[in-house]
Design goal:
single chain, alpha+beta, GMP Synthetase, Chain A, domain 3, SH3 type barrels, 42% strand
């Protein structure tokens, strides 16, 4: 089974469970590592999450995935917070984290650069606006390879 298809099936199982408990599914990863296959679920909610939150979700999601037999081989399930530098994956992330410090990497250069670190000004019509050193850049959402919140010290 292709990884993207499998991740979509896992998402369809996991997302309703998390939403019913007030969590947001931030990201999913399924990859082979030295210790075998690992399924990582990154979740969040307003105010953050605790170790007990992760443990509870891990037990519930693990049981449901086992019953539904979504993943055909043995795997390790990890449930965690996305951390302080959480990825921005969905269009609503760019609205929610407006005025936060972000780091954005593009697939192709825009105005001669592929990396931007600055204040997120939001999302308008599939265009992310970010202010870097007093200059505002308009970045088309599909051109973003990776975006994360940054810690401002």
């Amino acid at each position: 089974m292709k990884s993207e298809k499998l991740l979509q099936e896992v998402r369809e199982v996991v997302e309703p469970i998390l939403q019913s408990q007030g969590y947001e599914l931030v990201d999913l990863e399924y990859q082979r590592e030295s210790r075998g296959w690992v399924l990582r679920i990154y979740m969040d909610r307003e105010g953050g999450i605790t170790l007990d939150d992760c443990t509870g979700v891990s037990h519930e999601v693990g049981a449901v995935l086992e019953v539904k037999d979504v993943i055909p081989n043995a795997y390790i399930l990890e449930v965690s917070s996305p951390g302080l530098t959480r990825p921005l994956k969905k269009p609503e992330d760019y609205r929610r984290f407006r005025d936060q410090l972000v780091k954005i990497k593009l697939f192709q250069p825009l105005d001669g650069r592929k990396n931007f670190k600055g204040k997120l000004l939001g999302l308008e019509d599939e265009t992310v606006r970010v202010e870097v050193d007093g200059k505002v850049f308009a970045i088309p959402l599909p051109s973003i390879a990776k975006a994360n919140l940054e810690i401002d010290f």
